[in-house]
Amino acid sequence: MSSTIAWLRGHRAARLGLSGLSGALLLVAIGLIAFPLITNVAAGTNEGKLTKELASTKIRNEYLNGDVGIGQSLTRIEIPAIHVNVVVVQGTSDTALRAGAGHYTSTPLPCTVGNVAIAGHRTTYGKPFAYLNRLVPGDKIILDTPIGSCTYSVSAVPISVLPTDTAVVANTPGRYTLTLTTCNPRYFATHRLVVHATMVSNAKSAGSTAA
């Protein structure tokens, strides 16, 4: 250790480089801590706007026509077991998901027949799916749309799959199902955590007659 210190004393460029590296690492650490906090505050601020939009006549009409735009309010998701209560927007692009949770546009509208799929952040932008791993069979998931609500029941324990495994959001013709996805493990995106659920009740929603 003493020899290293002595060497550094004799090499000013090395000392400057080491100081620069230390500063850069400090900035990275601050960024890693600050970024989630900033995005969570932004998501919380945006939630009020999305809530008003979801209750608007404009969104109701667009929902009935199947024409809700990317980034617009689509439904509210409530998961009592893990204290989730947020608005889900249409789309899963990076911009859309700044709302916290977004609907896969290739899947059916909430509460309709088929496999409705929703993605949500786990550590940023309000982190609505932070504790998706805690869900167990029987836990309820409620979707409240502009024209009615429905309730799904978790049908199996969460599973982890590769991001390339798109089969988890494949359609389920003739069945009323719901799939939730998020990053796994937390703070990384090497896999996706997936929760499947089946509809157990439906209060008049678009195109659905499930009991």
Brief summary of the model shown:
With 211 residues, the protein is α+β, with helices and mostly antiparallel strands.
Description:
With 211 residues, this protein is an alpha+beta fold. Helix content is 28%, strand content 29%. The chain is built from 3 helices and 9 strands. It has helices at 2-9, 12-54, 57-64, and strands spanning 73-79, 84-90, 101-103, 114-120, 140-145, 148-154, 159-161, 176-184, 191-203. The chain has an 8-stranded mixed barrel with strand order 1-2-3-4-8-9-6-5.
Molecular shape? globular
Task: Give the tally of β-strands.
Answer: 9
- In terms of DSSP E residues, the strand content is 25-35%
Counted by DSSP, the helix tally is: 3
Topology diagram in text:
Layout: H1 2-9, H2 12-54, H3 57-64, E1 73-79, E2 84-90, E3 101-103, E4 114-120, E5 140-145, E6 148-154, E7 159-161, E8 176-184, E9 191-203
Parallel strand pairs: 2-3, 4-8
Antiparallel strand pairs: 1-2, 1-5, 3-4, 5-6, 6-9, 7-9, 8-9
Which structural traits does this protein have?
9 strands; disordered C terminus; globular; alpha+beta; 3 helices; about 210 residues; eight-stranded mixed β-barrel
